[in-house]
User: Fold this.
Amino acid sequence: MKKKNQDLRTGLFALIVVIIIIFIIGLIVNKPEPTIIQGEADASEIRISGKVPGRIKQYLAEEGTQVKAGDTLVIIDSPELAAKLEQANAAENAAQAQNKKAIKGARKEQILGAYEMWQKALVGVDIAKKSYDRVQHLFDKGVITAQKRDEAEAQYKAALATANGAKSQYDMALNGAESEDKEAALALVDRAKGAVNEVKSYLKEITLTSPISGEVTEIYPKRGELVGTGAPIMSIVDLNDIWFTFNVREDLLGELKMGKTFKVKVPALNNQVIEVKVNYIKALASYATWKATKTTGQFDVKTFEVRARPTSKVADLRPGMTALFEETVK
Assistant:
C-alpha cells in the first residue's frame, strides 16, 4: 500500500509538471510577436538650376562642401546674353537721342529759314494787296473788266494763304514737336529701358547662389558642359531639417498617431537610441501597397507613410541612415 501511494504521488507530481510545462509553452506561443519596422532618415533637398542656357564656367563648391545661404556656387558663361545686352543698350541710346530731339524741337537754322519764308510771304501779300486795290479802283471807274478784278482778288487771297501757311510752319518750328510726338518718344525710351532691365535680370542668373545653408550632395554636369534653361546643376541638402520615414502596414500602426513619441535605434550611430515624434501620416498609393489577406478571412491591408522628427538635434545623423523600432502584433 505504501508503495502504491508513493507511485500515485509520483504520477500526480509528474502530471502537474507536464501541465505547467504545457501552460508555459502556451504562453510563449501566444505571446505577441514583436515586429521590427525599418525606416530611413531623410532631409530637405533642393536642386540648383538657372534660367539662362550656357556652359558651366566655374564651380565654387564641391560635393560635400558646407555652404551658407547666399554663397555663390556656379558661374555660367553665356556670350549670347552679353550680345543681347549690347543690342538693348544700343536701342536705349537711340531712343534717348530721339527723345532729346523731340524735346529740343527744330534746329535754329530751321527756325530761321521758316521765319524768312514767312517774311517773304508777307511781302507777297503786300504787293498783291496793292495790285488788288489799284485794279479795284479802275474797276469802279469802269476802265477794266470784272474778270481782271477777279484775277487780282484771287492773287491777293492766294498770297494771304501762302503767308498763313508760312506762319504755321514758323510756329511749328518755334514750338518744337507736338505733345503726342514727345510722349511717343518718351514711351520708346521707357520700352528700351525695360529691355535693358530684362537682359540685366537674366545676367544675374549666370551667377547662381545657394538659397539655403546646407551641404552640396551632388553635382550633375561637368565644367564646360552645356546646360539648358531649368536644368539641374547641383543638389543641396539641409541637415538641420531631417526626419525618419517609415512605411507601416495599417495593422501595425498601433499607437503611431499624430504627435506620438517613440524611440528608434540607429545602427549607423552605434545603435544610438533616439526619441522621435510623429508629425505626418498618409496612406500610400493603393495599387502598390495593398496586401491581400482575404484568403485567411481577414481584409486587405494598406500601407501608410509615417514621418517622425527627432525631438532634439542628433549629432552626425545623415539622410539614408537606417532606423529601427519594434511594434507588437496583437
